[in-house]
Amino acid sequence: MSDLKIKIGAYDSTLRNVPVTFTSGDIKHERTVNAALKADGSYDKAATKARVDEVALGVAHKIGLGVITVPTPEPEAPVEDAADSATAE
Description:
The longest helix has 21 residues, at 45-65. This protein is flat. The chain is built from two helices and three strands. Strands 1-2-3 form a three-stranded antiparallel β-sheet, with helices on one face. It has one domain (5-67). By secondary structure, the protein is an alpha+beta fold. 8% of the residues are buried.
């Protein structure tokens, strides 16, 4: 398994979380992580990074176990031709 890459998005002050993307090879896992806040209620970027790093350990473990995988593409629905729909009526 390749190294896990982490991208932390912008802090959402309403939800008090950050969107995070974890990438390992072809596997891309997106989720939100609760932000860490300082005593005065402001966003603590360093503590949030530490929290994301802890979450990353679990994500890496789940990828290693095969719990988090590359999503299977959904099959495309057949395209109905206008001529086919006219004869079906």
